[in-house]
């Protein structure tokens, strides 16, 4: 895996109790971040069958071709995915799967793109595949 544009935990200040963190670039003051995987500069990852981006997700079966990575370009037909970009001051973010540097997202259904979100505190109910229970037969997620 080579380093692309993204660096994990780049410019991240005051990160405490960070376990299995899938973090973003330029995230400041992330405290008590639990339940996120760490993907480092993954570019052009296809057919991801062994899901590592869903943490705190219970009973996930048959999750194929799910690509929730950073530095992902050209994401098409992404359903139920929330993209956070340039999130600063995220505190108490639990089970958050965030994407940074996502370009050219087309035909995004049920997707909310957050750009330049500042001062997000106590974000516990994020719709980023967070607290998702019993997800079965989730297929064809990708870019």
Structural key phrases:
single chain, 143 residues, little secondary structure, two-stranded parallel ribbon, disordered N terminus, disordered C terminus
Summarize the model shown:
The chain has one domain. It has no helices and 2 strands.
Would you write up a description of this structure?
The chain is mostly loops. It has one domain (1-41, 48-143). 0% of the residues lie in helices and 6% in strands. The chain has a two-stranded parallel ribbon with strand order 1-2. The radius of gyration is 14 Å and the shape is globular. Residues 1-143 have low confidence and may be disordered.
Q: Averaged pLDDT, please?
A: 36
Q: Multimeric state of these chains?
A: single chain
Structural shape: globular
Structural class: little secondary structure
H and E order: EE
**Using DSSP, what is the number of strands?**
2
Which secondary structure elements does this structure contain, and how are they paired or packed?
Layout: E1 82-85, E2 112-115
Parallel strand pairs: 1-2
């Amino acid at each position: 895996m080579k380093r692309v544009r993204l660096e994990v935990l780049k410019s991240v200040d005051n990160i405490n109790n960070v376990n299995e963190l899938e973090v973003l670039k330029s995230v400041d003051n992330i405290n008590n971040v639990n339940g996120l995987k760490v993907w480092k500069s993954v570019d052009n990852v296809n057919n991801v069958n062994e899901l590592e981006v869903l943490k705190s997700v219970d009973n996930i079966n048959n999750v194929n071709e799910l690509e929730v990575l950073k530095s992902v370009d050209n994401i098409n037909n992404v359903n139920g995915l929330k993209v956070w970009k340039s999130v600063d001051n995220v505190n108490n973010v639990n089970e958050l799967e965030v994407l940074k540097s996502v370009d050219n997202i087309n035909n995004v259904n049920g997707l909310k793109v957050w750009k330049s979100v500042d001062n997000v505190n106590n974000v516990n109910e994020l719709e980023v595949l967070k607290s998702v229970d019993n997800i079965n037969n989730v297929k064809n997620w990708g870019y």
